[in-house]
Design brief:
Radius of gyration: 19 Å
Number of strands: 13
Order of helices and strands: EEEHEEEEHEHEEEHHHHEHEH
Strand content: 15-25%
Helix content: 25-40%
CATH topology of the largest domain: Nucleotidyltransferase, domain 5
Oligomer: single chain
CATH class of the largest domain: Alpha Beta
CATH architecture of the largest domain: 2-Layer Sandwich
Distance between the termini: 12 Å
Shape: globular
Length: 296
């Protein structure tokens, strides 16, 4: 058995994975904004506790950690949505855990899982995006990740799609993820409807399904789709994938958004090379793709 850990911008998920890629048992918790002050302590304490618990029930041979941000030489160089830099997470964990540990960018872990087990397994060339607190990405060619050297690259969320736009946590302005991440969408929808941040994603999803014709909701959805269409079409024009997969918390909203995204891209003449069929699919492994992929 292996343990996969998905360390997101607003959550930690830990699961026990068998040799077929199935999650046998899983636990998760949210990371609140106020907890970011002690984020390293919270991350390490939660991981250590659960690894110890799982080790009492299963024979754990390896641990994989998926992290949003830049990983180099087993160190987290920076993760803007977690607010950490030059973090030796593995070294710190090894003080209490004597099991081999690997670490990699979360979007790339999720892309590997979807390419091997999920929605992209029937395609040789694909792009995968994770839409959650931010936007991560990966390119798969012949079942393998596109490698870019010492740093993982494919930071799709930080391509600029709006000149002098909203300031991003990375320090730049107008980044894709400030307009098209699920956090950006949910924040804008809450603001438009006069709701506070305690309104959960499921409540917003219920509102979308029940009140989709509400003028304020339609406005937010339309703007979100417009920006998402621009970003995705840019990536298609560069890499010409057979299919585009989208994961992260987006998967819970995919039935509302997927067809709108396709229509937007096709109708607005955003593709350099026209296509009879535009394949955009939600992650088949849902929000568990990062956990499963961290063990690959």
């Amino acid at each position: 058995m292996k343990v996969g850990i998905d360390l997101g911008g607003s959550h930690i998920s830990i699961g026990v994975i068998d040799n077929k890629g199935y999650i046998i048992e899983k636990t998760e918790r949210r990371i609140l904004a106020k907890e970011k002050i002690n984020i390293k302590e919270i991350i390490e304490r939660y991981i250590v506790k659960n690894i110890i618990d799982y080790s009492e029930k299963y024979k754990i041979t390896e641990i994989g950690i998926a992290v949003p941000g830049t990983i180099c030489n087993k160190k987290i160089i920076k993760s803007v949505n977690l607010g950490i830099e030059n973090y030796q997470l593995i070294d710190n964990l090894k003080k209490e855990i004597k099991i081999p540990i690997k670490i990699r960018n979360d979007a790339k872990c999720a892309a590997l899982a979807e390419s091997k087990y999920g929605a992209l397994k029937n395609y040789k060339r694909s792009i995968f995006l994770t839409l959650g607190t931010g936007i991560g990405g990966a390119v798969i060619i012949d079942g393998k990740l596109l490698e870019t050297g010492n740093v993982p690259g494919c930071e799709f969320g930080h391509m600029i799609i709006q000149k002098d736009g909203i300031k991003c946590n990375c320090g730049k302005k107008g980044c894709f993820e400030k307009y098209s991440s699920m956090k950006a969408f949910k924040t804008k929808l809450r603001n438009e409807l006069g709701l506070d941040e305690t309104t959960r994603g499921q409540e917003l999803l219920d509102m979308l399904r029940k009140n989709g014709e509400n003028a304020k909701i339609k406005k937010v959805v339309s703007e979100f789709i417009d920006y998402l269409g621009i970003g995705i079409s840019n990536l298609i024009n560069i890499f010409e994938p057979e299919a585009v997969g989208i994961g992260g918390s987006f998967v819970y909203f995919s039935d509302i958004f997927i067809e709108k995204i396709k229509t937007n891209i096709q109708n607005n003449n955003l593709l350099f090379n026209k296509r009879d069929e535009l394949i955009i699919v939600p992650a088949a492994l849902g929000n568990d793709a990062g956990i499963i992929g961290s063990c690959l």
